[in-house]
Design goal:
- The structure is a homotrimer of 245-residue chains.
- The first copy, chain A, has 245 residues and is mostly beta strands.
- Chain A has a single domain, classed as Hexapeptide repeat proteins (UDP N-Acetylglucosamine Acyltransferase, domain 1), CATH 2.160.10.
- Chain A has one helix and 31 strands.
- A ten-stranded parallel beta sheet of chain A has the order 2-5-8-11-14-17-20-23-26-29, with no helix packed on it. In chain A, strands 3-6-9-12-15-18-21-24-27 form a nine-stranded parallel beta sheet, with no helix packed on it.
- In chain A, a hairpin with a 2-residue loop joins strand 30 and strand 31.
- Chain A is globular, with a radius of gyration of 19 Å.
- The relative contact order of chain A is 0.08.
- Chains B and C meet through loops of B and loops of C.
- Chains A, B, C: Keywords: Transferase.
- Chains A, B, C: GO terms for molecular function: transferase activity.
- Chains A, B, C: This is N-acetyltransferase.
Chain lengths: 245, 245, 245
């Protein structure tokens, strides 16, 4: 364990073996940080909130939280969470393993996230979102939830396994982005999409099957992306993806 | 008064009774913070700027500024200001009471804001904006001001009482969003709008009266929103709203 | 030299004459900061990264980095860099002089930037971007790079001298924004543009010559902007611009 002398760590916090805590970082009471995790400088971990129901913040082992990040109490992140800088992560999130949260992303809490999900920079995840496994969400995408703002009606967005949402798209309340779909950049989309199709425009229209997009070097189809893009995924998983028809 | 031992507070700053100042926060000289206000950790309050004309920053009573926020000198916020994290608030803002500024929002200064205004996360308010009372602005909305960038011509946006601007819309220079209007998500809009109408698209078109939008549970009309949405408003005000025809 | 007592400055860092370093700021090992530069509070300068190849971060003389900013090692910024607050600047950037980077902007590294470039607030510059001289990029613009995300193919965007990209536009992978072009607000654009033309819409279309846009006060043409907008440029340069046909 290595705690910078300027860090302020509650003696109620549970801090695992070999955890590293950076300069000026504050760890509050209601927190468990599992072994081998790095928390960089200027973070606040376990901010208290009346909406958290007093539940702890759990950060799984081998995680890496970059500087200036803020996590509230009352969420669970399994092993190997990685964040960029200045992420804001609220209460009541239940996230799987190997989640990546890019710089400046803002997770509003009260949502579910699967395994191996990637949020690039500056992604906004509204409350009540349900995100599957192996999902990619690119910069400046917003997942909304209020069908007639302002109101107390929250219709979260669902994003299913292997779906990809490109830069600066708005996913409207209650939309379901189906397995393997691609939402093109600068789109707005509502309703239920069909699997493995491309949607683009504002309002978005169905364009064609994702299989029609060729790789830039013409060496084959660009989708499903799991057939050619494997960075950061475990060998076993890649083997399984490659053996699918 | 409760000042964290790591906070750096100028002895020229005026700090009211029962104010709480968090760890590592810096309060500069030219600041008045009224009673019962909370300033969380890692903030900078009263940043000096040659554009502020040497005027103080005034933060009204019962306010709550969340961590990592930056306020310049030369602005006035009446009672019960509430901010999210990492807001950036520049000089020469004159704001009413009960303003809410969401996480990551960026107020460029030189603007007027009424009472009970809500900015959600990541809202950008350009200089020369004039915002009325009870306005709602949702994530990633930008209020622009330069009709032919770059230039020294600043035509601020006007947003009138009860108007709502949905996620990721751009309000073009000099636009007037009239009382009770709804600008749909992912729109860009210019010119003068009619009261209580919906505008959507890029470029935005007039769609219909807001009264035509039904609540999700079909229990009535979703607009004017003040007829059904009352969270955070005082009883007296709600009573008045409900008694209007 | 003026280093705040709470700043943490590596004794391996090279810090020039008359440099000022603010409260709680961290300067890492692999950094050179030239004379007369100001680094404000809560910054991290020279964050180590395996992608930087061990190269230093060089910040030129007379620069001003505002608070809560993060710079990685392995980039070079010539004299008179100015930033807003909470900018995030990654490795392998080669930037000219008098660069301005607005609050919340996120430079992903591995890119080239000319002289006198202005990024307004919340600009996202993807890897492999090539930006010329005297370019203006306005809030919430994203320069992308992946033609079929996610993938390892990076086709950076090129933005040539005097080009202007207005608020909340997405520049698609491999696009070339030619000299003097104006991309209108809330546009998405791909391919190669013609010089001194306006493009707008999503997908963007060629509208007309920029010369057709009049100044708001009808005193002449608004473009090329260098004929009337001179704030922050040296006299010699302005003289040259005014003498061009």
């Amino acid at each position: 364990m290595s705690i910078h002398p300027t860090a302020i760590v509650s003696n109620k916090a549970i801090v695992g073996a070999n955890v590293k805590i950076g300069a000026y970082t504050i760890i509050y009471d209601n927190v468990e940080i599992a072994e081998n995790t790095v928390i960089e400088a200027f973070c606040e971990i376990g901010v208290s909130n009346h909406l958290s129901g007093g539940e702890i913040l759990y950060i799984g082992s081998n995680s890496h939280i970059r500087s200036h990040s803020i996590f509230y109490e009352g969420s669970v992140f399994l092993e190997s969470l990685v964040t960029g800088h200045r992420v804001t992560v609220r209460e009541k999130i239940k996230a799987g393993k190997n989640l990546q949260i890019g710089t400046l992303s803002d997770l509003q809490g009260h949502c579910e996230i699967g395994d191996y999900v990637r949020f690039h920079s500056n992604v906004h995840i509204g409350q009540k979102s349900k995100i599957g496994n192996y999902v990619w969400i690119f910069p400046y995408v917003v997942l909304t939830n209020d069908p007639h703002p302002p109101s107390d009606t929250l219709l979260g967005v669902t994003v299913k396994d292997f779906a990809v949402i490109a830069t600066m798209s708005v996913i409207l309340p209650g939309a379901i982005i189906s397995r393997g779909c691609l939402v093109g950049a600068h789109s707005s989309i509502k309703g239920i999409t069909e699997e493995d199709m491309i949607y683009a425009g504002s309002p978005a229209k169905k364009i064609c099957s994702t299989a029609k997009i060729k790789l830039h070097d013409k060496s084959g189809s660009a989708y499903p992306w799991r057939k050619h893009f494997h960075r950061g995924y475990p060998e076993e998983l890649v083997k399984q993806w490659m053996s699918e028809l």
